[in-house]
Structure formats: C-alpha cells, structure tokens
Amino acid sequence: MKLATFLTSGLAAFTAAQTPAPYTDPKSGITFSILQHSSGYFFGLALPTNATGSTDFIATIGGKGTGWSGVSLGGAMLGKLLIVAWPNGQSVLGSFRKTATHASPAIATGPFTQSPIANGTYVNSTHWTYTFLCSKCIQPDKTTFLPTDTSPSLGYALNAAAPPQKTNPASSVAKHTSQGQVVFDLSKARSGRFEEWAGYAGVPVAKVGRGFEG
Ligand code: HEM
Ligand SMILES: *[C@@H]1O[C@H](CO)[C@@H](O)[C@H](O)[C@H]1NC(C)=O
Ligand SMILES: *[C@@H]1O[C@H](CO)[C@@H](O)[C@H](O)[C@H]1NC(C)=O
Ligand SMILES: *[C@@H]1O[C@H](CO)[C@@H](O)[C@H](O)[C@H]1NC(C)=O
Predict the structure, then answer these.
(1) CATH-assigned architecture of domain 3-213
(2) Which end of the chain has fewer beta carbons closer than 10 Å to its terminal beta carbon, N or C?
(3) Sequential DSSP letters for 113-145
C-alpha cells in the first residue's frame, strides 16, 4: 500500500473490507463506527449508550457511482433483515428486504422504519450517502443483532451496477460482486449524543422505501 493512501482523509479507499472504525460525517456531524470497502462502499452505525431495551440505531450507507449498497443486520443473507440503497440522480432510495433463497431479496414488511436525516443524505461528485434513523430495526426474532450483543457480525454486499428500475425502491438488484461478514464492536458505535442525533430525523419513508431528496 502506498504511503499516499494513508494520507488521504475522509472515506479513504483501503483494500477490501476493513475493521469498522470511528468516522464523523462532515455534513451531519454524526459519529459512526464505519465499515469501508475499497470499492467506495461504506456502512456505519451509531447507537445509544444504554443498550437495554433499545431497538433503534442511526445508520449511514453509501458508495461511489450508481450501484447498490446493502447490509444484513443479522450477518448472513438468508432469513435476515436486509437494507438496500442506491442513488438516483441527486436522490437516494432505501428499502428493507428479506429472502429465503439466494435471489434478489423482496421488500420486507414489519414494525421497522427508515427516517432520513436530511443533512446526512446527499450525492456529491464522488459518493452518495444515505443517513437515517432506523426505528424498531433491532428485532428479537434472530433476523438482526440483539440490543445487548457486544460484537455481532453484520453482512455487507455491493454491486457497482445500478438496479434495473432505479426509480423504484422495490427494484430487483443484480447479485453482489463483493460480499461478506464483518464483526462490529458495538461499544465503538455508542454515543451519549445518540438522542440528539436521532432528533435530526424527519418523517419515516413509506414501507416500500422511496427516493429522498438530499
Ligand atoms: C440477485 C441478488 C442476489 C443473489 C443471487 C445473491 C446470492 C448470494 C449467494 C449465492 C451467496 C453465497 C456466497 C456466494 O456464493 O457468492 C450470497 C451471500 C451473501 N449475500 Fe447475497 N445475493 C443477492 C443479493 C443480496 C443482497 C441485496 C444482499 C444485502 C442487502 C445480500 C447479502 C449477502 C451477504 C451479506 C452474503 C454473505 C453472507 C452469507 O453467506 O449469507 N445478497 N448471496
Ligand atoms: C463526498 O462525500 C463523501 C462522504 O461524506 C466524502 O468522503 C467525500 O470526500 C466527498 N467528496 C467530495 C469531492 O467532497
Ligand atoms: C437503561 O434502560 C433500561 C430500559 O429502559 C432502564 O431500565 C435502565 O435503568 C437504563 N440504565 C441506565 C444506566 O440508564
Ligand atoms: C444537521 O442538521 C441538524 C438539524 O436537523 C443540526 O442540528 C446539525 O447541526 C446539522 N449538522 C451540521 C454539521 O451542521
């Protein structure tokens, strides 16, 4: 790895998927424990300090270009609550997904919602970024990590190809070109400012997801 790589600030591109590390989004000011991938993909989590009974987190997900980025809140692809997002011009679309088979996951319905955080959701010349309060996203049914888990494995998946119906949040996606599972040390994602940051969120998007003007 060249020295210059270490000197790059912000969402620097390293090789493959790294250990999640602290990152503060410059536009929202929210600090996440973020997983970065050499493709430009990233997924970050912010959680409250008191884990007991908490079902919510703030997520940031994005990438470079026009492809999709996804996360499995339970680590594996099958039978877990998935989140898929991609950019559409200056908008970003996000949705919940679930599947029992290794095929494009269908929209998932349940108590969970995504409420976009306006200044953490944007498309610039290099990346797209979608930041949202994920309410009731930590479920007790083994489809996600648990509130009191300390170091769960979460799954990441991405493809640089845009979905075939990129204006439709329920669009199918092509199989990932890169995927895997990464351990998140949740203690590094916890902050006493969580409630303040959660207050930045707007209204929940429709259950099927929708475009959000960043
Ligand atoms: C047409 C769409 C998709 C197909 C055909 C597909 C297929 C597969 C297959 C066959 C594997 C096993 C590893 C491999 O052989 O490559 C896998 C793993 C995985 N997939 Fe998918 N996938 C699709 C979409 C997605 C999406 C949208 C997500 C997340 C939002 C996702 C998340 C994962 C994760 C995290 C793994 C690794 C963990 C595990 O082994 O379960 N996949 N996928
Ligand atoms: C675009 O946004 C990403 C995510 O905040 C940031 O890492 C990157 O430096 C930004 N690019 C430019 C050209 O400002
Ligand atoms: C954490 O939250 C639980 C459930 O709301 C509550 O019973 C407990 O007192 C809280 N702990 C602290 C240290 O605030
Ligand atoms: C992002 O927006 C919230 C209001 O929703 C504001 O309080 C916060 O200061 C903004 N972040 C930055 C870095 O300006």
Answers:
(1) Sandwich (2.60)
(2) N
(3) EEEEBGGG-EE-SSEEEEEEEEET-S-SSSSS-
pLDDT in tens, 22-71: 999 999 999 999 999 999 999 999 999 999 889 999 999 999 999 999 99
- Separation of 52 CA from ligand 3 center, angstroms? 6
Q: Where are the domains of the chain?
A: 3-213
C-beta separation of 120 from 200 below 8 A: yes
Distance CA 93, CA 54 (A): 26
- Give the chain's end-to-end CA distance (angstroms, integer): 34
**Nearest ligand 1 atom to alpha carbon 180:** 37
0.70 exceeded by pTM: yes
The DSSP result for 147-213, as a single string, is TT-SS-EEEEEEESSPPTTTT-TT---PPPSEEEEEE--GGGGEETTHHHHHTTB-PPPPTT--EEE
50 CB near ligand 3 (under 6 Å): yes
